[in-house]
Amino acid sequence: MFDNFQLDRITVGEVPLRVRHGGSGPAVVLLHGHPRTHTTWYAVAPRLAAAGFTVVCPDLRGYGQSGKPPTDADHTPYSKRAMANDLVGLMDALGHATFSVVGHDRGSYVAYRTALDHPERVAKLVVIDGVPAVEALERTDAKFAAQWWHWWFFAQSEKPAERVICADPDAWYNAWTSNGPDALGPENHADFLAAIRDPATVHGMLEDYRAGLGIDRRTDEQDRAAGRQIRCPAMMLWSTRDDMEEIYGDPLEVWKPWCPQIVGHGIDSTHHVAENAPAELVKSLAEFL
């Protein structure tokens, strides 16, 4: 995987981040979702590098082999603001004053938070299969709760989900069926297995969700009340065989109050588009970036 890319561990503040980077040209950061690591981009990153970009792929804090700081009652160490600060520090360390950011699934929350908190640093924003946290939560109804029930399960702390998941992580995450090596690629699959079998990583991933229902929602509410918007060029992509359109209708309409000039379209893929439809995803990203 990742021919001609460099694998590093770079400490940013309190957190060491595992990061793979390569290529030359304008910098773009690729942020994975749950329960993946940066290796989810193995078929995307080299293609973007070949198209003339410097490509940076970190494991988010709490995920993969990046740091997993102790949490607190508000789950602040796993807030998207904390993760966005990690990202800015990482790009400082790699020497990039400005960069574009692409986030999928949980990574999309980190991506738009980076654009909101650090507008002077983010040249372009791409979100994939995600809408602002507060928008998703305010639209929650019986259908959403039934289809996205894991949000509420992961967020419990009195009877933590870690006990259930860690009893059989391979079964929980469909590691030998829909997320098997044929679907993910053997090396990406091996990295995925190492992550989901590590109880500390499972805890870190769930802390991400716990922050999402609390501190991340409040941060979104504060931004909306203050009239803050994303001003850089922005694009949303969504997997047409996922449930974005079923839940939200036109997902772009959900985003427009946050970034009025947003563009986007669907891609014929299941949820994990970087692994399922990398060529089409790269075409869309390269043209926009």
From TrEMBL:
GO MF annotation list: hydrolase activity
Domain AB hydrolase-1: 26-171
Keywords of the record: Hydrolase
InterPro entries per UniProt: AB_hydrolase_1, AB_hydrolase_fold, Epox_hydrolase-like
Domain of life the protein comes from: Bacteria
TM region positions: none
UniProt keyword Kinase, yes or no: no
Gene3D superfamilies per UniProt: alpha/beta hydrolase
Keyword Acetylation among UniProt keywords: no
Record's protein name: Alpha/beta hydrolase fold protein
Organism: Kribbella flavida (strain DSM 17836 / JCM 10339 / NBRC 14399)
Lineage: Bacteria, Bacillati, Actinomycetota, Actinomycetes, Propionibacteriales
